[in-house]
Structures are given as structure tokens and as C-alpha cells.
Design goal:
Elements lengths: L16 H12 L3 H13 L3 H25 L6 H9 L1 H14 L3 H17 L6 H17 L2 H26 L15 H15 L5 H4 L7 H31 L9 H9 L1 H36 L18 H20 L5 H25 L5 H19 L5 H30 L29 H8 L4 H7 L4
Helix pairs in contact: 1-8, 1-11, 1-13, 2-9, 2-11, 3-9, 3-11, 3-16, 4-5, 4-15, 5-13, 5-15, 5-17, 6-7, 6-13, 7-8, 7-13, 7-14, 8-11, 8-12, 8-13, 11-12, 12-13, 13-14, 15-16
């Protein structure tokens, strides 16, 4: 059940471990780096360090499951392609729409956050925030026009710069760490730790991004697990060390400022502080956008290849292809959200809710698909089971903000109902001997997208079904069942 988009066009060199790791790190080590250490310290005090350790542990099954799926089923459709295999076309369309049109709401949020920090630390008038935000959006789009391999090397440079500056800030602030600042360890009880955990859950989101570019890796079965493991260690270490230094150096004032990273940098060098934080904010925004745009573009082309978007956008969906049309569609979606944000006075909360509700829905459905796809009893399957339970809990916590995700799910369901209605009308015309309207294909020629199962009353002959679903040879099926 490989989607049309997953067929390789050529054996051109793709992403290696270095580029892939950089993209993974950027998708996880995002804007939370700027604000979460202070917010978590305010909620839980020194015990916020425990919260970071807990979320690192919780991230392992989620990241591991996505790595297993991406390595075994490299497809630009990402999570949507796994859902298509396990749960059918309608659920896959919902998943694709959640990412393409829901998660995409976070793109202008990242750009505006980056612009806000740049203006704050550089003393620029806040009226320039929209202009700087647009300037932040341009380089990632330009890099992705040349394909994910170019974007991968750009990301490697951005990630190296980000880690260098973060290490510099920590090194400057480390001498100011005081053991007395770690007592009392639980000033707000375990409830405060729970609040801090809920904050850091969102900091460790982003592991699904790599699934959309999995087909671009030279050796996905090796590069993706290695890249995921390295990214887990690097991002976990960054957040953990930064949290320890934040609590130890700033003490009870860690949550007072809006930019705790700036306060840390100023402990070692007043002049360096503003430059460091402004640089980190810009790099984080550019890096997150660069990583996500590659995923949006590949997913859009894959959705078009499966007729979930107009077929014109499918160009570049194949491995090694550059999905410029889908990238342009992503640009339109981002500009629509950005325009709405400007109209609302740069109020970010509604767009963050659209983004987060879609992410939670994707994770929940994706883990259910993983449990069904991976061989029962294997290590990968057990990781998927644990991740599915954790995602169910996240879904309960986010229940109040799931309306945007529900609206996109209704849109996906509507497409399915319209298609079934057309097929029934076509079958009725055929039984009466009536010709199909001009420009409309005969029902026999209309094939459901790969993985979407037609109702029992509309099942085609066995040979036609096999062709439509693109059933893999027996040897390929056997490979897919190998233990992980």
C-alpha cells in the first residue's frame, strides 16, 4: 500500500545523518528555549529539573515510535501515510489536513515570537514586529525552493550556531550558580511539578516532522533512528542543563523576567546578553520554520498525489523531487494566518490553540496506527503502546481546545461523503445505460486513493482492487513484517 508519492524517481544522493539530525533538533529545540525555563521555574522551583527529566523520559517512546515508522515506511505523507495503511483513507485525510492546515497556524506564531524578541533586545520599535516577522519567513522558503537537501545543510549551520550560543550563555551563567538556590526543592508541591511537565511537553513536540522527509534519506533505516537518538540526547541535555543553570543562578527570580535567557547572559556579560538572546531568537525562528516547511511541502504534494488536494500540487512528491507547488500552497496558508494575526492585533493565543490541538490529534491517531502496523510484541510495538497511552492523556488535557481539529476532521469526512455520492451516482447512471456528463470519468475508471477502502457494495473485481491499492509483492510484505 505504498502511496504514489513514495515511488522513487531516481537514486540521487539524499539526506545523511548530519543533515537529518540537524532538522530533528531544530523541530524540537524551538521557541520554548526562550521562555520555558523561566516559566517552569516559576511553577515548580528547583523541582522543575524533575519535570524536565520526566518529559525527556516521556519523549523516548513517542520519538522512538515515529523513528521506527519513518525508517520502515519512508513516505512524504508522514503520519498520514501510516494512518492510511492502518485506518483507511478518511482517517489519513483528517491527519493530513490537521498537519497541513492546522499545525501550519504555528508558522506565523514562530516568526512573530522571533520578531518580538529581536525588537525587545535590540530596542527596535514594536511597530516593526510584522516587518521583521516577514523577514524571518523569507529565508526558510527560499532554502526549501531548492529542495530538502539544501534546506538540510542550511539547518545544519543554523543548529550549530544555536548550540554554540546556548553553550556560551550557559558557560557565562554557570559561575553564578548557588547551591542555596536549590532549597526548598518543592516550594509548590508535586502539583507545581505537574504544571511544569505540561509546559515542557510542548517543548518536546516536533518528532513527527522527520516522518515527512523520511523518503529523502539515503539510508532511512539507519539514518533516522541514529538521528532521532542524537536529537533526543542533544535536546534533552540542552533543556536539562539550561534548567539547572536557570534555577541555580537566578533562584527565586527565575520566573520574574519575560526573557530568562537574557538574564542568564547578563550575569556574565551585560553587553553580550542582548546580542546573544537576539541571535538565539532569530536562529530558533529560522530553524523551526526551515524544518517545518520541508515537512509541509512534502506532505502537501503527497496529499495531492492521493487526491486529497488538487492533483496540480503533486509535483515533486517523489523521492528526490522538489515540491515547489505545494511549498507555494504552504506559503498561501501561512500568509492567510499571518494576515488574520495582524487583523487581530498580533494576538497569538488563537493560533497557538489551532496548532496545539492539531498536534495532539495527529499524535493520538498516529500512535493508534503504529500499534496496528508494528508487529505485536516487538520493542517498537511496546513503545507505540506506551506512546498511545500518553497521547490519550494529552488528548484529555487538550479537550477544551480541540474545536479547530474537529472542524478539519469534518472537512475531511465531507470529502469522503462527496466522493461516495459521486461513485453511487456514477454506478446508477451506468446501470441505466446513461453516459457520464462531459468531463466526468466513468465510474470504472475512478480509483480510490491508495489505502482508502470502498464500501462493501462497491468493491471492484479482485485484480482491479489489487492494482488500485498497489499491493506490494509478497517479498515486500514479508520484509515489512520483520521484527524491529
Amino acid at each position: 500500500m505504498t502511496s504514489p508519492a513514495a515511488r522513487p524517481r531516481s537514486r540521487t544522493p539524499g539526506l545523511g545523518v548530519i543533515q537529518g539530525t540537524a532538522l530533528y533538533i531544530a523541530s524540537v529545540l524551538g521557541t520554548g528555549l526562550l521562555v520555558l525555563p523561566g516559566l517552569a521555574a516559576e511553577a515548580a522551583g528547583p523541582a522543575s529539573i524533575v519535570a524536565v527529566l520526566a518529559v525527556i523520559g516521556l519523549s523516548v517512546p513517542l520519538a522512538g515510535t515515529f523513528a521506527v515508522l519513518a525508517a520502515r515506511y519512508p513516505d512524504p505523507g508522514g503520519v498520514a501515510s501510516y494512518v492510511r495503511r492502518a485506518l483507511g483513507g478518511t482517517a489519513a485525510r483528517m491527519t493530513g489536513y490537521w498537519f497541513m492546515f492546522g499545525v501550519c497556524a504555528g508558522a506565523p506564531v514562530v516568526a512573530v515570537l522571533g520578531a518580538e524578541y529581536v525588537t525587545a533586545v535590540a530596542g527596535i520599535d514594536r511597530s516593526m514586529v510584522p516587518v521583521i516577522a516577514l523577514a524571518i519567513l523569507v529565508p526558510p522558503f527560499a532554502a526549501n525552493v531548492f529542495g530538502v537537501r539544501v534546506a538540510g545543510w542550511v539547518q545544519f549551520v543554523l543548529t550549530a550556531l544555536l548550540l554554540t550560543v546556548v553553550v556560551g550563555v550557559v558557560a557565562l551563567a554557570a559561575p553564578a550558580v548557588q547551591p542555596a538556590n536549590f532549597a526548598p526543592f518543592l516550594p509548590n508541591g508535586w502539583g507545581g511539578v505537574g504544571t511544569a511537565i505540561s509546559l515542557f511537553v510542548w517543548a518536546f513536540a516536533g518528532w513527527e516532522v522527520g516522518t515527512h522527509i523520511s523518503g529523502e534519506f539515503r539510508d532511512p533505516r539507519r539514518a533516522i533512528p541514529v538521528g532521532t537518538a542524537i536529537a533526543l540526547v542533544v535536546t534533552g541535555a540542552c533543556y536539562l542543563i539550561l534548567q539547572i543553570v536557570t534555577v541555580g543562578a537566578l533562584g527565586g527570580t527565575a520566573g520574574d523576567g519575560t526573557v530568562p535567557l537574557l538574564e542568564l547572559a547578563r550575569l556574565g556579560s551585560t553587553g553580550f546578553g542582548a546580542v546573544a538572546v537576539g541571535t538565539i531568537a532569530a536562529i530558533v525562528a529560522l530553524g523551526v520554520m526551515n524544518a517545518y516547511l520541508a515537512a509541509f511541502a512534502k506532505l502537501g504534494a503527497s496529499l495531492a498525489a492521493n487526491r486529497d488536494l488538487p492533483a496540480w500540487f503533486s509535483a515533486g512528491a517523489e523521492s528526490g523531487g522538489v515540491p515547489r507547488r505545494a511549498l507555494a500552497l504552504t506559503g498561501v496558508v501561512v500568509l492567510v494566518y499571518f494576515s488574520l494575526m495582524l487583523w487581530g492585533g498580533l494576538e497569538l493565543t488563537p493560533f497557538i490553540l489551532v496548532h496545539t490541538s492539531s498536534m495532539v490529534a495527529i499524535y493520538a491517531v498516529g500512535m493508534v496506527a503504529a500499534v496496528r502496523l508494528l508487529r505485536r510484541g516487538t520493542f517498537g510495538w511496546w513503545m507505540a503502546v506506551v506512546a498511545a497511552v500518553l497521547c490519550a492523556g494529552m488528548l484529555v488535557l487538550a479537550i477544551g481546545s480541540l474545536l479547530p481539529a474537529a472542524a478539519l476532521a469534518v472537512a475531511a469526512l465531507a470529502v469522503t461523503l462527496v466522493r461516495r455520492g459521486r461513485r453511487r451516482m456514477g454506478a446508477t447512471r451506468e446501470s441505466r445505460g446513461e453516459p457520464a456528463p462531459a468531463g466526468e470519468p466513468a465510474p470504472a475508471a475512478e480509483v480510490a486513493p491508495a489505502g482508502e477502502v470502498a464500501p462493501a457494495s462497491e468493491v471492484a473485481p479482485a485484480a482491479e482492487v489489487a492494482r488500485a491499492a498497489e499491493v506490494a509483492p509478497a517479498a515486500e510484505v514479508a520484509r515489512d513484517s520483520v521484527r524491529i
